[in-house]
Amino acid sequence: MDKKLIVVLGGGESGVGSAILAQKKGFRVFLSDSGVLNDTHRETLQAYRIAFEEKQHTGEYILTADEIVKSPGIPDTAYIMQKVLAKGIPVVSEIEFAGRYTDAKMICITGSNGKTTTTSLIYHILRSAGLNVGLGGNIGKSFARQVAEESYDYYVLELSSFQLEGVYDFKADIAVLLNITPDHLDRYDHNLQHYVEAKMRIIRNQRTEDAFIYWIDDPLVTKEIEKLKPAATTYPFGEKKNGHMAAYTENGKLYIQTKENIFDMELELLALEGMHNVYNSMASGIVAKLMDVSDEQLRTSLSDFKGVPHRLEKVATVRGVQYINDSKATNVNSCWYALQSMRTKTVLILGGTDKGNDYTEIEELVRSKVRALVFLGKDNSKLHAFFDGKVDEIRDAGSMTEAVEAAYQLAQKGDTVLLSPCCASFDLFKNYEDRGDQFKECVRRL
């Protein structure tokens, strides 16, 4: 019998990892990308002798696949996907595909905001506690490639709604849902419920012995939980103690209550600042206690964690003005969190590719905290339409150098300059990392 053909669509980190795993499991493999592969990925595929194409999708061959592993970035509306779906070829995500080939315990994190920070913090806690743990999903190395080449007992996976769409039999042993706010609605026909349903796939296939950790103060999440009645054991967390809670705050302390244990820690000892990070620390702490990390070890890890690049990252203080890189804030809600944690007057750099944003969410914070706005993008008309007249000083910038220069002129001693763009970066930058790196570079040149 002929070996099954697995076609991988998309030649990024997850696609290349999936191709390597498929080859290792004895399938015939073909990888196809409509864009240009980066040099590292191309060299990797060549080294593994995996057949691939770039700058095109050869439909005739792709449509002979027995199964397709699709990159999360490719929407079902793409021309090749329409053909694939019409032919009824099974399509899965890298997460679903790789999950078949490992018995490791899965700790999975999703949410509109805070998932990278929380995933990184959980990984930091577990690794510091000496567990044999891998980090993957929407962050770090490809999960599929790690399954092919490493041997971990646990995986901490950050999962986006796009990745969760392609999950069917995969199961999280511990699922964490931080929050749900409107994001990527362009992908979900501007229907919030479709996005909510994609996120809730994180609890798919969970059983009583599995854990589901969630923020109880999120109305969208709680409404959905009442409707779905998850089979997993639930561990809600929130700001105030209210009934049976796994984590809450009281009198300046964070409390975590699981099994017979009550863990407590002074809030000001947490490495991460801002209330949203208290929630991220709560979710991470619940995971740690479910995995029997000692109180002492957990306290140490929650207080010495270094944070995530491009997420409220302190860059430098120049002439009494602090510069903060929050380039990872690609939606309005992320920017809201950033502004909320500001303790000084702020010069805010906004703009980029708008994903159907509604800026009313940050309007009040902008009016109360923002001294000046700098719009950084190819087309700032939507930003002007909303903010003109609400802030005294507004400038436009067509490059990061111009934006930082304008912010430098507008900021006063004791202020903060915050890059928290609310938008995707693709109009002027390769990605949000490139945007953040350029910001840091420009600040260091001041």
Automatic annotation (TrEMBL):
It comes from the Bacteria. The keyword Cell division applies. ATP binds at G111, S112, N113, G114, K115, T116, T117. Its EC number is 6.3.2.9. Keywords: ATP-binding, Cell cycle, Cell division, Cell shape, Cell wall biogenesis/degradation, Cytoplasm, Ligase, Nucleotide-binding, Peptidoglycan synthesis. GO terms for cellular component: cytoplasm. It catalyses: UDP-N-acetyl-alpha-D-muramoyl-L-alanine + D-glutamate + ATP = UDP-N-acetyl-alpha-D-muramoyl-L-alanyl-D-glutamate + ADP + phosphate + H(+). Pfam families: Mur_ligase_C, Mur_ligase_M, MurD-like_N. It is an enzyme of class 6 (ligase). Residues 310-422 form the Mur ligase C-terminal domain. Belongs to the MurCDEF family. Cell wall formation. Catalyzes the addition of glutamate to the nucleotide precursor UDP-N-acetylmuramoyl-L-alanine (UMA). This is UDP-N-acetylmuramoylalanine--D-glutamate ligase. It comes from Proteiniphilum saccharofermentans.
